[in-house]
Each structure stands twice: as structure tokens, then as C-alpha cells.
Please model this.
Amino acid sequence: MAQVEKATGISRHTAEQYMAEMDWVGVSTFEKDGIGKPSHLYLNPEWAWCASEEFAPLLLGHAQAANEEPLPGSAAAQNLANFGGCV
Amino acid sequence: MPPVTLENVQAVVEKHFPALWSAVEAGLATCATLLLKNSVNPVALIYVGPAGSGKTTVLNMFEGATVKGVDLMYRTDKFTPASFVSNSAQVSTKELEKIDLLPRIKHKVLLTPEMATTFRGKLDDLTERFAIITRGLDGQGLKTDSGTHGQRGYEGDYLFAWLGATTPLSDAVWKVMAQLGSRLVFLMLDAKEKTTLDDLVAANYSQTPFMNNVIACRQAVHQFLEQLFVQHGGVRGVEWNPADNPKEVLEGIGRCALLLATMRTPYEREMPAQPESAKRVNAVLYNLARGHALIHGRTLLSADDLPMIAQITLSSIPDRRRAILLASAE
Model:
């Protein structure tokens, strides 16, 4: 629950609504244990591949890559020099 | 003029706009889908982001590209889906053929830098608009009927590609698109960071104004696209051999299609979930993957094509569900 609140930046109540939607579409199971207790969202077995070693990096990878700065002196920089068409 | 490689284009774009390379690469892949001989599914990739995220800059890089002197792009700043096949009462039936959009974008890339008005409005208007878009994206033409002009339109091979841009979508738009089995796919461009006072001062010290940087990228993109289209014999010039597709890559594309079709099912609490068929979006993602392969000099799919497909899949899932899915995958 805390992870979802943090990821979405929305209130607990609204986050629970969206988690219930995820349950409804069948991707996850939403467990709400009661007032004052943490709620949980589990990927259903048929969608477990979303979090698999092979697939999860594809889903998560771009967010990490977008934060990376281009490396000075990289192959890309060399290509730039080769092209020579830039302003 | 020496040939320009994709790596050259990447280097130029990353020099001037480091955050925009993945968007430019996806745009090039979208253009390359026109090369596929047996493609019947136009690819429409819409960049989504707040003002200043660079989506118009990306489209600027594609504007004006030609192949052997013939325009590859068709840009319009004011676009309504009804203009695909016009039924204007103020224009004669004969004259309408000159203003219809569909024949003018056949075998070209439609560029629509401002689509906010397409994605806003009353539910009925949105539904009508997206019904036309969905039909147009069948690639088989479009026929409409009106009281003034009767039936008119086009059928046959009306393949085109589409690059557009808009601000983040409302829940209502996601719902309408899901109900119609929309073929639009999206790519999120995030506002990387706030512009500081130092940034603004530095911008005015720069000897290369912003537009010069865009022009540098545009030259590289245009040269690369022309080479690519000439190398492959123009639109529909590539005969793809499906038997050579690696199974694990097709499985990756199929999983993305299943995920996307399921995750954009509109919420009706009292009803059981009825996801759209994943076949449509699977065909679009497959074409995009093949376009990505072509720009990388391959006529075979590889695992290298999957990150872009996953990125577009994620971007095409409604915002909150996407965030929850990512939290789950972590």
C-alpha cells in the first residue's frame, strides 16, 4: 500500500480505489485487511511474468535509462564527430 | 555527402536534446513501418507530455523530410478526424476531393503537433472522433455518409503513419479509446526538471539558438530517413519473412499487447471486466518492432526491439494504473 501511495502520489483512499480496479481487471488481487491495517496488492499468477527477471527490466528499464546522463567521450560522441553535420 | 548512420543521428540528437533520443528513435521506427510490404495496420504514435517536455521539438525534427524530392511528411497544425473524408456542406462534391485529408496522407507520415483539441470535449464528440480515427487506422480507407453529399470516401490501400503530440489525457479519453479498441499508442515525455534562472541566462549566452539545434537534428533525421527509404525501395519495399521471427521476441510483443489490452479496460464496477481483444494492438506493436529493426539495419526482429515496445506499452496504459503496475513489478 505504502509503495502504491508513493508511486502514484495520491491519497490512501484513492490508491485503494485504483488497486481495486487492478483487482477488477484481473491483473492483481487486492487484499484489504481492515481499518488501520496495511492493504496489499499481489500480481495474479497468470500475470506473474510482469515481475519476472526477463520482463520486469523491460517495464522498469526506461525509467532508469531516462535519468542517465550521456557519457562524455562515449561511442555516441565519436559518431557525432564522424557525422560532422551538427551546428 | 557521406551516409549517416543511426548512431550518427543519435549522437546529434543527444548532443542538443539528450532527453529526447528515445522519442526520436520511436518516431523513426514509426516512419519505417511504411516500408513494410504487407502491413495493413497504420501505426499512430502520439507523444504525451506537459508543456515544455519536448514533444513539439521531436516532431519538428521530422517535418519536411523528403525521399527523392517527394514529401514524406504531411504536417497539419489544426486537425479534426472529420477532415479525413470531408462532408462540408459549403463545398461541392467535386471540390471535396481536393480537401480530403486521407488521399493526401496516403503512404506518408501525418504530423499533428497540436492534438489537445482532438482529445478534449464532450463524451459523444470524443466517441465520434475516435470512431473515425479507429476506422482510418484500419488502413483500408474510409467511407462516410452525409445528407448533403451522400456516400463518399476511399477504399483500398490507404496506409499511412502518424506522429502526433498532446498534453496528458483525461480519464474520459482513456475510457472512450478503450471502448473503441483504439489503435493509437502513446509515448510519455516527462518534464525532466524545472527550468532554473541559470538555465534561462545560459540560453541567452548560447551562440547556437534553440532553432539551430533543432535544424541540426532535423538534417540528420531527414538524411537518415531518405537513405532508409531509398535503400529499401520506398514505401512497401520490404518483404518481411515472418518465419525468421525469433519466438521469444514475438512472445515479448504478445505479452505487451495482452498487458496493454487488459490494463486499459474501462472500469465498470457492476460489470465483469471485458478487455478488448489484444490482436489489434499486437499487430501495431509488431509493426513498430519491425520498424525499429529496420532503422537498426535489420530485417529480423531481435530482443533489442523489445525495450521500445515495452516503453510504448507502458505509456499507453492509463496513468494511475501504470504507476501501480510499476510499483507491483518492482
Notes: Chain A touches chain B through 45 residues (CB under 8 Å). The mean pLDDT of chain A is 68.
